[in-house]
Design a protein that fits this description.
alpha+beta, GIY-YIG endonuclease, globular
């Protein structure tokens, strides 16, 4: 049986309007678990970027990767505006996926 994939682009923030991290994954819940438990290392861990503030689901990984690349090229203000268009209070959306609040 093939593994079900749910391609997704996600944005993490250290705090409202704080440091941002943009990533792509085929399993958002697993990836959030990795970020929140320091398994990923790198930028997100170094800057404590664990709050899920936006995510977009895609039908295929190619589309998700193209969107991730597009967002990474955007100016910071455009990224902030994008998050605030759907999440003006910068709520941690991971809580709705079964995760506890972050520090």
């Amino acid at each position: 049986m093939p593994l079900e994939r749910n391609p997704c682009v996600y944005i993490l923030a250290s705090q409202p309007r704080g440091t941002l991290y943009i990533g792509v994954t085929s399993d958002l819940e697993q990836r959030l678990f990795q970020h929140r438990n320091g398994i990923t290392g790198g930028f997100a861990r170094k800057y404590n970027v664990y709050r899920l503030v936006r995510y977009e689901m895609f039908g295929d990984m190619e589309g998700a990767i193209l969107r991730e690349k597009q967002l990474k090229r955007w100016h910071r203000q455009w990224k902030l505006n994008l998050v605030e268009s759907d999440n003006p209070d910068w709520h941690d959306l991971a809580i709705g996926l079964g995760f506890g609040p972050v520090g």
